[in-house]
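hiii, so i know i said id send this last week but things got crazy w the move. better late than never?? heres the sequnce for the chain we talked about at the cafe, plus the structure i predicted for it. fair warning i was half asleep when i ran it
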Amino acid sequence: MKRLKQIILTCLAGATFFVSASANAFYCSEPSPPGRYSKPTQPTPPSVPYCVNEYSNTHTCDDWQIDSYNREIENYNWQLKMYSSEVDAYIRKLESYVDDAIEYANCEIKSLD
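okay and structure toks below
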C-alpha cells in the first residue's frame, strides 16, 4: 500500500478532476449542456371566434361561444404561467452549464501546468 500513491478527488462546483500525488495528472470532467428536450415551448393562443369582429369591436356570438372562448383564454393564461416557470428552470440549467464549462476550462488550463 505504501507504493500506491493516494488519489485525491476534488470537486469544484460541478467540475471534477482527479489529482495523482506523484504525477500531478488531471482528469477534467466535461459538462453536458441541457438537452433540447428540456427547452420549453411557448403555448399557442386560442383563435378568436368567427363571430367576433375585432376591427369594429363587436360580436354576434351566443353566450356559449363567449363562455367557451373565455375558458380558452383562462387556460392559455395558465399555460403561460407554466411556460414562464419552465423558462426560468431552463435558464437555471443553462447558467449551471456555463458555470460548469468555466470550471472545466480552468481544469484544462491547470492540467497544462
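btw Residues 32-112 form one domain. thought thatd interest u
miss u guys!!
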